[in-house]
Amino acid sequence: MNYEKGEDGEAVSETVNVVEIFGKNVFNETVMRDYLPKGVFKKLKKTIEDGAELDPSIADVVAHAMKDWAIDRGATHYTHWFQPLTGVTAEKHDSFISAPDAEGKVIMEFSGKELIKGEPDASSFPSGGLRATFEARGYTVWDCTSPAFLREDTLGVTLCIPTAFCSYTGEALDQKTPLLRSMQAIDKQSLRILRLFGNTTAKRVVPSVGPEQEYFLVDRAKYLQRKDLIYAGRTLFGAMPPKGQELEDHYFGAIRERIGAYMKEVNQELWKLGVTSKTQHNEAAPAQHELAPIYDQVNLAVDHNQMVMETLKKVAGRHGLTCLLHEKPFAGVNGSGKHNNWSLISDDGINLLNPGETPHENIQFLLVLGCIMKAVDNYADLLRESASDAGNDHRLGANEAPPAIISIFVGEQLEDVIDQLCCTGEATHSKSGGKLMTGIATLPDLDKDATDRNRTSPFAFTGNKFEFRMVGSSDSVAPPNVVLNTIVAEAFKEAADELETAEDFDAAVHDMIKELLAAHRRIIFNGNGYSDGWVKEAETRGLPNIRSMVDAIPALVTEKAVKLYETFGVFTRAELISRAEVEYDAYGKAVNIEARTMIDMAGKQIIPAVIRYTTQLAQSIGAIRTACPDGMMDVSVQTELLAETSALLSDMKRALASLEDLTAECGSIEDACTRAHGYHDKVVPAMEALRAPADRLEMIVDKELWPFPSYGDLIFEV
Ligand code: ADP
Ligand code: MG
Fold it and tell me: What pLDDT does residue 399 have?
């Protein structure tokens, strides 16, 4: 590392050699080559790259090499790193030390068995009834396709081994297991499509994913004064400051020093972990930012996104900041999402979603497009469900984009090709983008893309990938990709089943494309997805508009979904039922925590502050009247304020009592689904009813007396 010197000799910035640090903490191919015998390296590589079955006999050698490398780098512990259905990752650390020998010395040990299999006590992780608490066994199983990595922090250096997490009977208890299963499904069916078009070289097709992560940063000292941020990750009270995001001056604005230092450290940490942190910018709302990596295989992309979220939070603490990953930390300004860019790329370098310059001639692409339209149209409910969490209920279909209705944006060029095929049965041309004319002699004329962008579509084609924009910022990107992989696998399978046996392939594929496009044209919408008109239009098209998480969850367990997932070996019926149960339960818990936090803040902080204020007002009115009994001094303003404040205070008290009752009532409901509906239908509106007078009071009461930092303090003074 070098330090650039400022004029007065002070270090002004620390420069790093990115190439040198990139992947430094990853057990990657270079390290494996160094530490593993050639034969073992080859076998492991075959599993990682070709999906071949792992030869368990190499586990001991790999474990040994991993341990040597980790210890060379200062590691003392290892952990199986997994992704249970809690939304965050889990880990249990073990040190490498053996029991002391007769002389009291220890050695550092790590066996193949310890690498391959872990057995955390699984009874405390959500299982949705898949496992009774007395059947506590759960296994973590090494996923060698995602490289082990070293985590450096105050605990020292820990070797983290990405693992899948299953129950004693083999049911998935995590995000990774179904994802890996869905990757097998889409791989197999995509290869069938490629073979139909004469490709004999591809051995594997893997979904590629680039998740764009949005987040907020607030000052940690202020964060610690807000119980809502601490317990719920979002503000539950808060009047809008005089300025919001209306000037649009934050989006892509210059990055301030404090944030810059933070982003720089985040990047360095991520690069060391082999995460290709690439893009960073300020987002639409004040204090909101975004980080995007370069896309990668979906399994790595999912793991890396977990590391990104972890790193964003960890590094924030070192800069006196707190990172909020919640989907809607502040009402009234934009929330945060995670755009999931998805494409299908073969090991011989073909992106099945690349239309080329002249899509009308690219029959393979048109078939793939038709299949994706069919998949999204048939399973819009599953896609919508995959982006549901309690936080995202405040974005999807609420005052902010994207809408809760699933539709596909394909852009002008593709829509034109689809129209040609649907209307005349023949596509003869593709529109091109033409030149960008700026009217300035010194600026070069550029070739334009054939299609403009559409920021309002939940599922947008962006050149050579689809961007699913509904995913919540705090959520794992595994579920949406499980859905995408599996639903597209089914559409590919149905196409391949028919086309493989067709007598005249060219005619059959032509007919199939026309049929697919015509049958599923209703899912295409290129207009403004935020408009009320679209909601009506979508209804006439028969597209589902699923407004909330509790309404979305049933999609998981429809007969259609069970059949789909069982056919492709992604989920069993029992696993789906358990996931629905876990989600209902998670929703209820999230709202329960929010409601109880509001009760706490209202009762112990806001109401006492307002009482102090009204008391002061009343005392000052009394004092003035005493000092000036002839009524010469006007106290009408104070009196009015006192009346207004007192009225709002009693509104608050009433709303608080009602929220307390409803929260207790819903909390006592046994069944997770009924309980979730109770929280959604009764507690959420009661929370809004409590918030309204409190936010008005915040605008009246002396700022000195208000018990916690305001929106303005939080989002403009970072
Ligand atoms: P855009 O501005 O079109 O959304 P970006 O370059 O900002 O594109 O990319 C957004 C994310 O999409 C990045 O993570 C990027 O690596 C990823 N991405 C780009 N191409 C692909 C692809 N073919 N498949 C999946 N993700 C991709
Ligand atoms: Mg994008």
Answer: 60
Residues with CB under 6 A from ligand 1: 208-210, 212, 279, 292-295, 341-343, 351, 462, 464-465, 467
Please give the distance, rounded to the nearest whole angstrom, from the Cα atom of residue 693 to the centre of ligand 2.
39
DSSP-based three-state secondary structure for 100 = coil
Euclidean distance between CA atoms 299 and 143, whole angstroms: 10
Residue type, 698: E
Lowest mean pLDDT among 69-78, 203-212, 434-443, 583-592: 434-443
Give distance in angstroms: CA of 540 to centre of ligand 2.
Answer: 30
Query: Which atom of ligand 1 has the smallest separation from the CA of 462?
Result: 3
Residue 5 pLDDT more than 60?
no
SS3 assignment, position 10: coil
pLDDT at 12: 52
Q: What is the CA radius of gyration of the chain?
A: 29
Burial of 696 (0-12, 13-18, 19+ CB in 10 A): middle
Render 427-494 in DSSP notation, one character per residue. Answer: --------EE--S-TTSPPEEPPSS---TT-SEEE-SSSEEE---BTTS-SHHHHHHHHHHHHHHHHH
- Would you list the DSSP string of 343-375? EEEETTS-BTT---S-GGG-HHHHHHHHHHHHH
How far is Cα 317 from Cα 479, in angstroms, rounded to an integer? 29
Rounded to two decimals, the pTM is 0.95
Shortest-distance atom of ligand 1 to CA 279: 7
Residue 193 confidence (pLDDT): 98
Ligand 2: centre distance to CA 89 (Å)? 26
Specify the ligand 1 atom closest to the Cα of 211. 14
Ligand 1 atom nearest the C-alpha of 467 is: 4
d(CA 214, CA 234): 15
The pLDDT value given to residue 503: 96
How many other CB atoms are there within 10 angstroms of residue 603's CB atom? 14
Mean pLDDT of the chain: 93
| Size of the chain in residues | 718
Question: Angle 202-206-211 (CA atoms, 0-180°, nearest 5)?
Answer: 150
344: left (phi over 0), alpha (psi -120 to 50) or beta: beta
Q: Which residues contact 368 (CB under 8 A, 6 or more apart)?
A: 193, 344, 352, 353
List Cα–Cα distances, 183 to 28, 82, 344, 345, 674, in angstroms: 21, 18, 10, 12, 34
Tens of pLDDT, residue by residue over 545-603, are 999 999 999 999 999 999 999 999 999 999 999 999 999 999 999 999 999 999 999 99
Question: CA-to-CA distance for 659 and 598, rounded, in angstroms?
Answer: 9
HSE, CB side, 13 Å, CA atoms: give it for residue 202: 25
3-state secondary structure of 92: strand
Å from CA of 473 to ligand 2 middle: 14
Instruction: Measure 501 CA to ligand 2 centroid, in angstroms.
Output: 39
Q: How far apart are the first and last CA of the chain?
A: 28
Percent of the chain with pLDDT over 90: 79
Select from 212, 295, 488 the residue to mutate for testing ligand 1; criterion: most ligand atoms less than 8 Å from CB: 295
Strand partners, 151: 158
| DSSP code, position 555 | G
